[in-house]
Prior knowledge:
Distance between the termini: 28 Å
Number of strands: 5
Radius of gyration: 15 Å
Strand content: 25-35%
Helix content: 25-40%
Number of helices: 4
Structural class: alpha+beta
Order of helices and strands: EEEHHHEEH
Amino acid sequence: MARGxxxxxxxxxxxxxxxRGERLNAGVVVYxxxxxxxxxxxxxxxxxxxxxxxxCDGDAVRPYLEAIEAIAAGDPAGGPISRFDxxxxxxxxxxxSSTMVQPSPIHTGLTxxxxxxxxxxxxxLVLPDGAA
Length: 132
C-alpha cells in the first residue's frame, strides 16, 4: 500500500466584523510540495453570511474569494502574486490577515491525491452539513 505525501491546508474564512471574531468558512486551500499541487475551492453562502452579519454585502466579498482561486491556480486574473512559485503563493494565501477574508492557521496531513483531499476538505469544512 502506497503511503501518502505531506500536504498543508488553510480554511478561508469570512470575518464580517473583525472585532466580534465570528467567522464563516468559505473555502479551502491545499498545498502539497512533493505532489506539486496547489489548489483552492471557495463558495460564498450568502444566506449564512447575512444570518451572521445582516447587511454584509456578498458582492463586496466575492472578488476576494475568486482571487484566492486564481492565485492558487497561477491564473493571471489573480494579479502579480499569481506569478509567484507554488510555495510562495501558498504562503501568501496562508499569511495572517486583518481583513474580512482570513486564513485559518495552517493544518497538515498526508494524502496520495491532493485534488481529492481538496474536494473532501471543502465538502466537510465549507459546505453546510457536509452536503455535496
